[in-house]
Amino acid sequence: MAEVAPAPITHRRVLKIAGPIVLSNATVPILGAVDVGVVGQIGEAAPIGAVAMGAIILTTIYWIFGFLRMGTVGMVGQAEGAGDKAEVSALLTRALIIAGAGGLLLILLQPLIFWAAFELSPATEEVESLARDYLFIRIWSAPFAIAVYALTGWLVAMERSTGVFWVQLVMNGINIILDFVFVLGFGWGVQGVAIATVIAEVSGAALGLYLCRAAFARPDWRDWARVFDRVRVISMMLVNLDILIRSALLMIIFSSFVFLGASFGDVTLAANEVLIQFMYITAYAMDGFAFAAETLIARAYGRRDRARVRRSALMTSFWAAVVCGSMSLFFALAGPWLIDLMAKAPDVQAEGREYLWYMVAAPLIGCAAWILDGIFIGATRGRDMRNMMAISFVVYWLAIWLLMPWLGNHGLWLALLISFAARGITLGSRYPALERAAEAR
User: Fold this and answer.
1) Half-sphere exposure of residue 137, counting CA atoms within 13 Å on the CB side?
2) Which residue, of 4, 69, 105, 236, is most buried by count of CB atoms within 10 Å of its CB?
3) Residues 290 and 317 sit within 8 Å (Cβ to Cβ)
4) Summary count for the chain: helices (H), strands (E)
């Protein structure tokens, strides 16, 4: 137990953690728009498709390593809450070693990875050729891009979310500036976008290392006996593996939603794609409060303080409800305008309006699942997250089987919302055990 009395858990503290995360997330869609916009100035369709396809392939691959951020937050936060400064530093070293090894493995396996990606998502010969050029350049920054997950997790756990904001802002800012220089200035086309991203990701990792310098101020970061301690390494691997499985199942749900929607025709597919962007907007807004839950729960867990676990859960859940309620109201009022802004085809606009109310309901139905994810990550209850996600996964496919033949695309949307509800209910059923375990550790 740490000797210093912990800071009180207040609304101001929650907002201080969440605010910079929400702001940093706001820069992400801007970068995507600029990437597409600058290659669009070339005046050909193929470069746009190549950048979009290449970015999706790498984003999906890197997303798999999201477990590194989530696991790092929970374990570092608990070590900090317990006053174990040596482990706080050693955990960052372990996470960076995993990031480096993972990135190098991707570089080595790139021919196989890219072959599989194009087999799953075939494109025209021109688009595929340009996308391969893009991927061949970008893959070299994989260790740095993955390291940003570890560095971000450490900063969040230490309640330095302002640092996360600066890392994201610098990365995206450099990327945007170099996009214009390399593509419009030097005429490097798709390769210019890739080189800009590589430089941005290396710069982001370098800034992250600087912001995490407190971890390296102690000699424990290179205490190799501690860093490679068998018990600690196995514990970290198990937590990360459970989170990885959970994330993979979630990714399959969202990917299948897109593929199944394609069976209803191009117009319905386009409408679904427009509406799912509303989901991403909600996720960007929710991330900050889920991160706050991860941090505060982890620290309370480290102190074995059940009362602080409950207060952390209640405070962050309150703000999650505010955000989700606000987003639902916003979509109800501004949804038609947003649909018209994002899609100019009248038939897509009409189709989007027909299904808009599912996205109005989504933040309300998904709120519990999203904030409980943060709570369980902070408590490093990866097994519960994995098991409850598995149940929700089965529920989703049962709903697909029962509802899609009867209701078509409406059934697909209902199945997605049912999966959100199942995640919230199943994780909620495990919350009392999470609280009890805080004292039993």
Assistant:
1) 22
2) 69
3) no
4) 17, 0
What confidence tier does 36 reach under pLDDT thresholds 50, 70, 90? low
Report the amino acid identity of residue 393.
F
Could you tell me which of 141, 137, 200 has the C-alpha nearest to residue 168?
Answer: 200
DSSP state for residue 9 in the 8-state scheme:
-
Cα-Cα-Cα-Cα dihedral of 200, 205, 211, 215, to 10°?
180
Sign of CA dihedral 123, 124, 127, 128: positive
Q: How far apart are the C-alpha atoms of 148 and 156, rounded to whole Å?
A: 12
Q: How far apart are CA 377 and CA 75, in angstroms?
A: 9
Helix/strand/coil for 178: helix
Residue with token string 């340009």:
130
Mean pLDDT over 19-24 rounds to 87
Type of residue numbered 351: E
| Domain ranges across the chain | 1-228, 242-441
Q: Could you report the per-residue pLDDT of 333-354, keeping only the tens digit for each?
A: 998 998 887 777 788 889 889 9
User: Is the pLDDT confidence value at 402 over 60?
Assistant: yes
Closest CA to 148 of 72, 258, 216, 90: 72
At what angle are helices 189-211 and 142-157 packed, to 10 degrees?
40
Q: How far is CA 354 from CA 368, 413, 419, in A?
A: 26, 12, 21
CA angle 302, 232, 102 (to 5 degrees): 110
Residue 63 CA to residue 57 CA, distance in Å, equals 10
Mean pLDDT of 305-326: 95
For residues 130 and 47, the answer to whether their CB atoms sit within 8 Å is yes
Amino acid at 4: V
Average pLDDT over residues 186-194: 89
Q: Is residue 121 left, alpha or beta, with left meaning phi > 0 and alpha meaning psi from -120 to 50?
A: beta
Sorted by sequence, the CB contacts under 8 Å of residue 106 that are 6+ apart come out as: 61, 113, 139, 142
User: H-type helices in 9-65, by residue range?
Assistant: 11-40, 45-64
219-238 pLDDT, tens digit per residue, is: 988 899 999 999 999 989 99
